[in-house]
# Entry
Amino acid sequence: MIVHHFESGFSVLNRFISEIRDIDIQKDPMRFRRNIERIGEVLCYEMSKTLTYETKTVKTVLGTKDIALPVDELVLCSVLRAGIPLHQGLLNYFDRSENAFISAYRHHKDDSDEFEVIVKYFAAPSLGNKILVLTDPMLATGRTLENVLKVLKSHGQPKQIHIISVIGSSEGVDYIKGVFPADTHLWIAAIDDELSSKGYIIPGLGDAGDLAYGEKR
# Structure
């Protein structure tokens, strides 16, 4: 797996990351969602540099201009519900992409530390020979993405896989390296070193879905 980690660099991305972590700024869910969306825009812009391009001639009112344009067919697949703002950020730039959605959530039986990942909803086009872009804001243990990959296999073999995530754990990143193909690209804004006993990223930011859309019951 090729990991593109942007936290150590200097860019406006750091401001968006700092705001989604800040417990005071988190109290504004609209701002939280917009920051996740903007992070998605930055990461997909960086990802776009790896796509296939062909030169096209564009006609203007005063002449013509040759421009290199991306030609890959993309499918954006997001994990509900936390992935929705991140998905929108990608869709702002990859506006011609097909879209897929999958629900995957943790079930902690009797509030124990152990959990299973449950998938209940999946809708996707064919993935055959297309670029699959998986978006999940929090890459904690890596088991959610592992289960998503298993379900996606029924929809064809993608030409390549890209994963876009906001914050991950070192353990989770290492785990998915053994699950996904070696040529998979991971585009991630920040990587934290610790996981709690329940598998949550420390310091992380909390529950991204709850912060974006309210607490669930």
